[in-house]
Amino acid sequence: MFSTGQGRKTDATDAHSVAVVALRTPGLRPVQVDDLTVALRLLVDRRDELGAARTLTVNRLHRLLVELIAGGANKFLSATQAKALLATVRPRDVVGKTRRRLAAELVVELDGIDKRIKVANKELTELVGATGSTLLELHGIGPSGAARLLGDIGDVSRFPTRGHFASWNGTAPIDASSGEQNRHRLSRAGNRRINRVLHIMAIVQLRNDTEGRAYYRRKIAAGKTGMEAIRALKRRLSDIVYRRLVDDQKRLRQDVKVTGPGGHSGAATGSSAADSNPNVDASEKSLPGPASTDPTPATAEPPHRSPARSRRPVNAPTRSRRQAQSA
Question: Cα(307)–Cα(297) distance, rounded to whole angstroms?
């Protein structure tokens, strides 16, 4: 494969090359069986599709309502509001009746999409809770955002530091300094879906009286522009999410050590009882019954003799060859 011969590229050669690289490269993620994170990714993808379908339906509904009602409808429109608006319209011409009928069909579609979104949010909330994650406690992260974080990130320990995590999700700015001017620009690399979750989290915190809004105002007071302050806030939120994921992982692993994989309480791997030679403090109290719990006592083993050339004692006196011949 690495020779200077024909060098033909085949599937077998490619598979062998990949196997060699995987065998000799440390730090690669091990192949594992699909777990709960795969189900989270599937459901959150479906939730995003429902959100896109709702936006498309609302836009089409707005286009018809503008022709039926003077001034149109509110930007954030629900199926109930659209149905109430259509009830006030009684067109008499063919064009108006056609528009009203199409709008009524879109209202039915919008109502069905809203119901499916509600069911999807409930299922995502249950799955996120089943993972033991506390991401939903962070202000600005909902069921869809938490599921996206858990599904795309997987094992957070593959990021050594919060800087690696920020670089992966695209919130770490890129140095664009020139001469004496020290500045950074927006990074468009990284996982854009995770970046979108952090952006929504930042916008939600800006709309409410939170620590994120206070941090944003401090950046504005320091001379940052609005976009620069939002980028700084997203970078800070990335660190907060990373710390929460790391803490959750440590807590869950500690729970597994204490309870064991079968759910029964036992000794943790860090305790003395988990070692090959338990310390004395592994069980400070004596057993309530007899000291020996084995009904069949072990038989005494014969003494072990080390191999030697002679069985003569070490301190036994030795005779010379002449004394032995004279005897």
Answer: 30
